[in-house]
Specification:
24 strands, single chain, Thrombin, subunit H, six-stranded antiparallel sheet, Ubiquitin-like (UB roll), alpha+beta, globular, 17 helices
């Protein structure tokens, strides 16, 4: 999620095709277009199966599979019915059924091949996320000789616990089909695909082929992998640096951009901004000069950004005046000085070694919540043998008895893993959870929204694990102050994210969308920006003094200019209303053992104020 928006005036695009060709090598201009552009797109016919019925698709083979399906009314009708879900496309080949992304090129589908189409939960990592530069018609995409396809099993080797980001996708397929350009490296192809967890790129992983028992490193080219099947394995425990050579963002050379611009004009379907005359000449000059006088590249247009750009520009003057009035700033230099000082404050708190050591010790009490061995969220040791997490983490696996509103039971095996800080800890600290002590999902009698579950483990945890209730704080967190979240984002290893609390009534420079979301923030919610998304629900939130102040719960979504949901603001629920509600439930629970009831109530009463560490 981008936290900064930079807007600048952008020159209008030139319509001169001749000037674009100036950026090509002279020989290419004289001989004409590249060979793959001379090849005309051919007609492709394949079938798709939807709800056990087969339908025929006839399309241009330069299209993506999703664009081809969108030419069929029956598919479009079904997509409208499942607008909140993601499209899952599976192709079957030689008794192998594999999921393909929706931007899979039609030229790679065989004539009369049958693909299966279903809809699955859209958890943000499903297969419908299309690469903007790979969508639509493009003559170069009609040449199957440019690509290779290979298959990867969803289960990796013995040291790979999790491979696919999407939980919904993991439950529906046994392997995925990856397509790549022949000149790609394996790492670049898998990163561009986007369905694989980042950990496989950080560790020294590779592909293992069962038939030949050969291993392929991530730096190897993909051109020799066509139509082969692999599983991801760990080659060594070394951490791999992320090289700029492996970046998979669609950064193009000047000739490629000019080529796309011309194709967009000829076909009428280009979704990328074209280069202007000024941009091309500037980039050409940069390639010829390495001196200090080389001009920086001209800014590029964000597609369909005119409306949001206008809103930001309209609000800028008012926000600047309000900031100068509030902080008594008289001129531009004082404004710049103010932001420099604020930035210095922002990096100060968690750079102190004492704070880092304290936070590292407290993080030992953070655990990953597993339901039948599948990661579902995060929790932390609150006191005794009791873990606190979000109710929505276990809600699909819990049930309530009708005659006792406070009694919830687990329907599946739940475990807490405390030391998942590397993929294969030498001594796993894995404890079974057998009981839900208290649970709330929704508004309580005081009209406060709650989302928590207090879980009881079968056994007492090791005595050296801190009980985070011993270091809690009920004091309202200061707007603009730093906080720190510890959890398992992306269902991966334990991570830490320092971030900052946002004022609920902002008077400074905030994104327009963020301001709209802040209007929805409730009294017991703590708003902030974080990179912790799926898998981190239930993480503890610490203030700048390492006191526990809340539980990381969720965020507000907004559709971007491409219609894709983006998280724009996250929040935690403060601790005090949660503890008050636990106390009420425990007092009213008829079937609880008296000794356990007294123990919990005494703990809560003893920790009614801030504990001194």
């Amino acid at each position: 999620m981008s936290k900064d928006i930079k807007t600048e005036d952008v020159p209008q695009a030139s319509s001169s095709n001749q000037e674009r060709t100036d950026t090509f090598p002279k020989k290419e201009v004289e001989e004409g277009p590249a060979k793959d552009l001379q090849q005309e797109a051919e007609e492709k016919t394949f079938q798709f199966c939807l709800k056990k019925n087969k339908y025929v698709v006839t399309c241009d083979d330069s299209m993506t599979v999703l664009d081809a399906l969108n030419t069929i009314q029956i598919f479009k009708n079904e997509k409208v019915k499942n607008r909140d879900k993601a499209v899952l496309i599976k192709r079957s080949k030689e008794n192998l059924e594999a999921a393909v992304k929706t931007d899979f090129p039609c030229c790679l589908i065989e004539n009369n091949e049958i693909i299966n189409v279903t809809f699955i939960k859209n958890d943000g990592d499903a297969s419908e996320q299309q690469n903007i530069t790979e969508r639509g018609q493009h003559p170069s995409r009609s040449n199957p000789d440019m690509f290779v396809t290979f298959y990867i099993e969803k289960r990796g080797g013995e040291k790979v616990n999790l491979l696919l980001k999407s939980e919904a996708l993991r439950g529906k397929v046994e392997c995925v089909c990856v397509y790549a350009h022949k000149e790609d490296t394996l790492k670049k192809a898998l990163k561009r695909d986007g369905r694989f967890i980042d950990d496989i790129f950080m560790k020294h992983c590779g592909l293992f082929e069962n038939i030949t028992e050969c291993r392929h490193e991530m730096s190897h080219p993909v051109k020799h992998l066509n139509q082969k099947k692999f599983k991801v394995v760990v080659l060594s425990n070394a951490i791999q640096p992320d090289s700029q050579d492996d970046l998979t963002s669609q950064v193009k050379t000047v000739p490629d951009e000019a080529l796309d611009a011309q194709v967009g004009e000829d076909v009428g379907t280009s979704q990328n901004p074209v280069n202007t005359e000024q941009e091309i000449k500037q980039n050409k000059n940069e390639g010829e000069s390495t001196g200090a006088s080389a001009k920086p590249p001209a800014p590029k247009v964000i597609p369909n950004s005119e409306e949001i750009l206008g809103i930001l520009r309209d609000q800028f003057k008012g926000l600047l005046e309000k900031l100068q009035e509030r902080e008594n700033l008289k001129n531009k230099s004082e404004v710049q000085k103010f932001f420099k000082e604020e930035f210095a404050k922002s990096v100060e708190n968690f750079l102190k070694v004492r704070q880092v050591k304290r936070l590292a010790k407290l993080s030992d009490s953070v655990c990953q919540i597993l339901v039948e061995s599948n990661p579902e969220g995060t929790g932390f040791l609150l006191f005794g043998r009791f873990i606190l997490t979000n109710a929505h983490v276990i809600e699909p696996f819990a049930s309530c008895t009708q005659n006792q509103p406070y009694l919830f039971r687990l329907r599946k095996e739940v475990r807490a893993v405390f030391n998942f800080e590397e993929h294969h800890p030498k001594i796993p600290l894995d404890v079974e959870v057998n009981n839900i002590v208290a649970y709330a999902l929704g508004k309580n009698s005081e009209d406060r929204h709650l989302d928590y579950a207090l879980l009881e483990m079968n056994n007492d945890p090791p005595t050296d694990l801190p009980k985070l209730l011993d270091c809690h704080s009920f004091a309202p967190p200061r707007a603009g102050s730093q906080i720190c979240i510890v959890g398992h984002p992306g269902e991966g290893v334990k991570k830490v994210d320092p971030c900052f609390i946002i004022e609920k009534e902002p008077t400074g420079f905030f994104q327009v969308i963020t301001q709209q979301c802040l209007k929805e923030v409730e009294e017991n919610q703590i708003p902030y920006h974080t990179c912790f998304f799926n898998g981190s629900s239930g993480s503890p939130v610490f203030d700048e003094h390492c006191y526990l102040i809340g539980i990381h719960t969720g965020g507000f979504n907004h559709k971007d200019i491409f219609g894709k949901k983006q998280r724009v603001l996250e929040y935690a629920y403060s601790l005090k209303p949660i503890l008050e509600n636990i106390k009420i439930q425990v007092e009213n629970m008829e079937n609880m053992e008296e000794s356990k009831r007294n123990y919990i109530l005494k703990i809560l009463e003893d920790r009614s104020d801030i504990s001194d560490m």
